Amino acid sequence: MQRSEPIILGNNALGAPVFLAPMAGITDLPFRRAVARFGAGLLVSEMVASSEMVTPRPSTRAAVRAKALTEGALPVSVQIAGCEAAAMAETARIVEGMGARIIDINMGCPAKKVTGGLSGSALMRDLDHALGLIDAVVGAVDVPVTLKMRLGWDETCLNAPELSARARDAGVAMLTVHGRTRSQFYKGQADWNAIRAVADLPNRPPLVANGDIVDADSARRAFAQSGADAVMIGRGAQGRPWVLAQIAHQLWGTPAPVIPQGDALADLVSEHYEDILDFYGPELGLRVARKHLGWYAEANGAPLRAELLRAATPEATLALIRRAFTQTDTEAAA
User: Got the DSSP string for 65-132?
Assistant: First the structure.
């Protein structure tokens, strides 16, 4: 598969066209650090709610600010969500000041608590309102603004091409389309062919295909069917932070990541776990870390998953990590 020219967004030359998708409660700074150690063309933060970012309550704002923290050499995009133009513009200015190199607008989240507030994919039911938000954000910042959406609200409202065309005209620098409607949530199979209608728009910005892309084979098919310029990996990276770099190597011959096994895998999981505790504090960190430990165990065939999820202290958890993930290598060699 031939690699296209790098995608340029403002002053950002993105890497291999395999990007980390924004996932609420998942793509926090510790997870992005885990992915960054192997490499990615672009990292996207978890969603930042504009209504919370502009709140006058210091504790709430501090918690939301933590989602948008950026660091390191890889390009990082901060995703924002909301339904009010003024709050979206102010949030964009805040995260730009915090170091965001790219700002992504969420018009794809299907969660009821988001769409119930007329944010996320609910905006695809009112494109005039959606464009008002896009105009407000693009006009508020100097960094590139991108847009993530679904195919539409449901099978009767497949308006991703129309939203994409209007976003293009409003100055959006890159489009990402998840190959499902909001009504599908994550059921069934992503329809990469349906993304082709956006790819065929004249003078469009770079396009990213998203949904059910988990390895080199699915990435290759998504590229071919969608006509996109890049792919975005979400759930496929859970428990496998190296998979983006692995796909890039298999498709374009970029440097091969060293896939950790045995002690190296235990080291990686331990470092990610300790990073979570440092970031959130021990009490909240213990709870946040459990889902990641479960994903690591599932993705890598590690035993002791139930024990890992029940461990009550960092010391007990770290000891179990060493036993579980070193044992996977021992069993594989047996």
Answer: HHHT---SSS-EEEEEE-S-HHHHHHHHHHHHHTT-SEEEEEE----HHHHTTT-GGGGGG-HHHHHH
